[in-house]
Amino acid sequence: MKTILVPIDFSTYSQNALKVAAKIAQRNGSEIHLLHMLELPSQMNDAVSSGVPIPEIILFIKKAQEKIEQILSQDFLKEISTVQHIKFENAFSGILSYIKENKTDLIVMGSHGISGIDEVLLGSNTEKVVRLSDVPVLVLKKETTEFKGEHFVFASDFSEEVKKPFQKMLNFTQIFNAKLSLVMICTPNSFKTTALSEQIINDFVSDFTIDNYTITIYNDTNIEKGIINFSRKVGADLIGLSTHGRTGLAHFFTGSISEVLVNHSIRPIITFKI
């Protein structure tokens, strides 16, 4: 893991995300890329695209650079290699275009979560990045004041398509030498016997080299609640999931477990694209 991208809007949430990214970078010798998005009025965007500098744009850039320099001067970033970028684009599309243009191994983002009608109609920038990013996304909430990463819950159906993201997840757990709790959530709509569920997980795990792990079959009313309740029960530091990144009508009708958890779990979430 050489490059960690941290989108920063100078909020408490993005500051917390940067602190966690620094902790990962220290353990792994990674470089941190700070990305700040400047969303400009349409007339200013026209000026940017035409290459004509105007005083307002110059002022916005200067203020953003000053704030970034203040952030980079903090003690927790000392001895960590950093790169800073300012882009003129809306937040989620700017992040996605950045990872396509630059080799990125991990995105670390802060999120306050949303609920109710806003969740249905708007979604959040973080949720959209989780859905569409081809690289792992680690999402931190405001409740995350200290990140340990020593106990990792990975929830899955443990199907064949999950094997590739599962290997990426194992690589991440090695950074913190984490204990791994593998869990399959059984619900009334997706019931499997304990014997069958354990056989599925054991067959899946047999293709990997894992030392410190446990297997659990957990019953709940739905998968999202099951993951949240199990993670709380075992005191997990982090929840890992694989995501399909569905869009359009498929996403509208089926939803995404990862996105629901990004909005509603108080624990950090890391997602790996299938």
Question: What does this 3D model show about the protein?
Answer:
44% of the residues lie in helices and 22% in strands. The chain has 11 helices and 10 strands. Helix 4 runs parallel beside helix 6 (125-132) and helix 6 (125-132) packs antiparallel against helix 11. The longest helix has 18 residues, at 55-72. The two termini are 18 Å apart. Mean pLDDT is 84; it is low at 114-123 and 248-255.
Topology:
Layout: E1 3-7, H1 12-28, E2 31-37, H2 42-50, H3 55-72, E3 82-87, H4 91-101, E4 106-111, H5 117-121, H6 125-132, E5 137-141, E6 151-155, H7 163-176, E7 179-186, H8 194-205, E8 213-219, H9 223-234, E9 238-243, H10 248-254, H11 257-264, E10 269-273
Helix pairs in contact: 4-6, 6-11
Encode the helix/strand succession as letters: EHEHHEHEHHEEHEHEHEHHE
Estimate the helix proportion, in percent.
40-55%
What class do helices, strands and sheet pairing give?
alpha/beta
- Provide mean pLDDT, rounded: 84
- Indicate the proportion of strand residues: 15-25%
- Counting DSSP E segments of at least 2 residues, the number of strands comes to 10
Report, as a whole number of angstroms, the end-to-end distance.
18 Å
Inertia-based shape: elongated
Physical arrangement of strands within the biggest beta sheet: 3-2-1-4-5-10-9-6-7-8
Number of helices: 11
Uncertain segments:
114-123, 248-255
Taking the sheet with the most strands, its summary is:
10 strands, mixed
Please compute the radius of gyration using only Cα atoms. Answer: 20 Å
